[in-house]
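Purpose: get a first structural picture of the assembly so the mutagenesis plan has something to point at.
Setup: two entries, given in the order below. No constraints added.
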Amino acid sequence: MSEENNLKEEMKRLKEEMTALKQQLQNMTNQRTQKRRGIYIDVNDRLAGVSDYINEVMEGVTEGIEGEIEKSIFIHPHAGRVKIVHRDRADRESVEHIEKPDLNKAANIMSALGQEHRLKILQELMTGGKYIGDLQNALPEITTSTLSSHLDVLQEAGLVVQERVRGRYLITIPGRMAYKMSNMIAKQRDRHADTDAETEPSQP
Amino acid sequence: MLLQHMQLGTQPQKITKGTTLLQNEKCIIKTAADTLTLPILVDSNPSGHLFIGKGEFTLDAIIETPRGAIGKPITRDLNQPFVMLGENTTLNQNLAPATTQDLTNNGYKSTEEFLKIANETFDQFAHPRHGQFDVNENTHIFAFATEYNKWDILVAKRDKMVYTSKERVYITKNNGHSVSLEPGSILVSRKGKTVVIDKGNILVDREDP
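Result (structure tokens, whole complex):
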């Protein structure tokens, strides 16, 4: 019970910190819109002040939560109250939120995943951002033009994003989820296939 | 030096070849050849430039988190006037006095017309604002005109950057600390720890699952 209270207190603190962040954003927006008074541009304030403040917030938030939470949690408004749900439970409960999925978008993502080379590209990107040359070295069986074409498809589906300045390719949050999901489905299929083989009556 | 004390020079110049005004791991700002420019002066000392012509701005407003990358690159053609406060030695080497023909090629009938429009534009940027700015090689402020009297602003100090526009605020430091604020979404990332508030959901992550 005390653990739950502690957790609630931490969440309350987290909420307050985030409210402060929102307030700061609002203040910046207000400054922009106040034409007569104008924006106060001060390099040191902008860089040191804002980022130091954010750092302080992060320090407090992460240190406070570390003692209470092993990995991660979801919080979402529920019947006017904040409800704290562990991640695995959140995944189960989130089913109610996907009653009307965007099937067209889902089909596009599944289409992007439906190619072994593209899954290999995602697999490579799971370990971190890669330049096109890194991907070519890691996947020599894919020609350069085909690799570029696959990367275009993955970017179009929102599974990969490319930095314009450095040129690295990065896997996005949906990209990681999609890759993991495809692996999970493949494993489940194998498991059921094994089970079916075991229960299948032997031929005389 | 105070922004209110800044004023434009009176001798139009043109950029003789494409010049990179700022480049780091996240951002690149270029201006094209034949772009017209006027020096920004404080007590007769150059402290920046107003550009009217063409250029390109790219900012990778992407934050890497243990769960994947969030955000997207921001790219825009700089067809509207933009301001750079700060020194740039490469730019100084690529400047030449603008001729009447150069002004005509950019759509201005005379030097007077160009100066009038340039000063009106600069007044929209500088005079409603308060603040001070120390000119040096490492610190730059860029302001990109959007609509009338609306400016997107980028402050860059080496690899530290703050970008504010109507749609978002993006802050990044070279040690991987990043903040992204968009309508309905806040993301703070530091030392592999991430807090995301997105449309009523809060996600706290502290390590790669």
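The first strand of chain B starts at residue 7 and ends at 8.
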